[in-house]
Each structure stands twice: as C-alpha cells, then as structure tokens.
Design a protein that fits this description.
mainly alpha, 8 helices, 72% helix
C-alpha cells in the first residue's frame, strides 16, 4: 500500500535530496541542526531549573566514579543558559562531538565515513579515554 504525498511535501523532499551535496544544502542542514540543538538546550536548561534531578549517571550515583559521558547533560544545560565556558569545562569531548555532528554536512561527515572501522573505533576509544580522564580529574577522583 502506498500513501499519497501532497505535491508540496513531495517537492520539498525532492529539493532536500537534490541539495544534499551542495554548499547551500549543507549550510541549511547546519542551520537546522543548530536551531534544533539550541531549542533542545534551552528546553533542558528550563526543565533543569524547574526540577533538578541530581546525578543522572548510574555509575557515578552508585560508585562515586564518573563515566566518560558524565557532564554531557551539564554541557547542554550550561549551553542553554548561555554559559559557554562552563559547558566546555563540564565535558570538552561532548562539546567537540556536538560541533562535529553540527558541522558534518559541510564535510567532516564524509571524512568520518571514509575512515576504516578500525580507525573509527580507535578515535572513539581515544575520545572516551580522554573524556574519562577529564572527568576523573574534574571531580577530584584521580587526586590523592
């Protein structure tokens, strides 16, 4: 069974696909991703202001040891408040990953998928190790 798509929606879909590899299409995708991320960050910040749930990471809650992703929610809360330095300090690896996802339509996305699986896994592993080292130092776990 096929569903009839209104002609205006079909035209937009066709135009969206046709502009996928162009500079203007890439800029439009970056703009839409940035707007979506900004709306999400502000929404998370407002929700956090209304109700602070405390520590969300189960590993940190039960053991006191942060995971590599600890601070990622704080990144978006601080970005939603406009505190860019605090967002960067919470987890710089998350900030770099978010920027890479934001800018992927302009070229970094192609670079990522051209890497072999072994190289991608190595980059992800190094990023997780760096993030975990950052969190252990930030939260004072690595200090005597």
């Amino acid at each position: 069974m096929t569903v009839a798509v209104p002609s205006s929606a079909g035209a937009l879909t066709t135009r969206w696909r046709r502009t996928a590899g162009t500079v203007s299409g890439g800029l439009m995708r970056v703009l839409l991703r940035g707007a979506g991320g900004a709306v999400a960050a502000v929404a998370v910040a407002r929700l956090h202001d209304a109700h602070d749930p405390g520590v969300l990471c189960l590993l940190r809650r039960f053991t006191g040891i942060p995971c590599p992703a600890c601070g990622s929610t704080t990144v978006f809360i601080e970005a939603g408040h406009g505190n860019w330095a605090a967002a960067l300090a919470a987890n710089p690896v998350t900030v770099v990953a978010a920027l890479a996802l934001l800018l992927a339509p302009l070229g970094p996305g192609r670079w990522w998928w051209e890497l072999s699986n072994k190289r991608r896994n190595a980059v992800i592993g190094a990023a997780l190790l760096l993030a975990w080292t950052w969190q252990l130092n930030r939260l004072g776990i690595s200090r005597p």
